[in-house]
Write a structure and sequence with these properties.
With 163 residues, the chain is an alpha/beta fold. The protein has one domain (4-158): 3-Layer(aba) Sandwich (Rossmann fold). The chain is 48% helix and 12% strand. It is built from seven helices and four strands; from the N terminus they run βαβαβαβαααα. A four-stranded parallel β-sheet has the order 2-1-3-4, covered by helices on one side. Helix 1 (18-24) links the parallel strand 1 (4-7) and strand 2 (30-32). It is globular, with a radius of gyration of 16 Å. The protein starts with a strand and ends in a 5-residue tail after the last helix.
């Protein structure tokens, strides 16, 4: 079976996919790629593609899905299967693109945690007994990535093209 490449969402890393890695890595190689390799979705996808095998299955969540769409646009012959989760193929509207500016300004002004909380809301998760624990892991992933990554990811989303 071909390797599986997972692309996490905004301000998330491999911890996002820990249950999937644990369950699937017995049957296939599983790789989680970084999602903060530039200020444009196209650049992030190019940087990721350069390190991937010739053929792979691809799954992306949210911003990771946007990156995954760009990967498949650039190299459709290399992607054997794709799963896009909670993502959107459309470019930002002028209004939604401009909504990132206060977040970027706030992060630059030392209010990174507040800005991160403004976009990573608890209602993004389904209700359940582990919701608080999962939110804490998501918050820790964001903190560990830091304000520079937050700003780059906001810029990448702000400038993304319509897929």
């Amino acid at each position: 079976m071909e390797p599986l490449v997972l692309v996490p969402g905004m301000m998330c890393d491999a911890r996002l996919f820990a249950p999937q890695i644990n369950a699937l890595s017995r049957d296939m190689p599983v790789t989680v790629v970084p999602n903060a390799l530039g200020e444009r979705i196209e650049g992030i996808a190019s940087a990721i593609l350069s390190g991937l095998p010739q053929k792979f299955a691809l799954a992306g969540l949210s911003m990771g899905g946007i990156i995954a769409m760009e990967i498949i646009r650039r190299a459709p012959e290399r992607v054997t299967r794709i799963a896009l989760m909670d993502t959107n193929p459309l470019a930002e509207t002028p209004q939604s693109a401009s909504a990132y500016e206060p977040l970027i300004v706030g992060a630059k002004a030392g209010r990174f945690e507040e800005m991160m909380r403004a976009i990573l809301k608890p209602d993004h998760l389904a209700p359940g007994p582990q919701r608080l624990q999962i939110m804490n892991v998501v918050a820790e992933m964001g903190r560990s990535m830091g304000p520079e990554v937050f700003i780059r990811q906001c810029r990448a989303l702000q400038r993304r093209k319509d897929q």
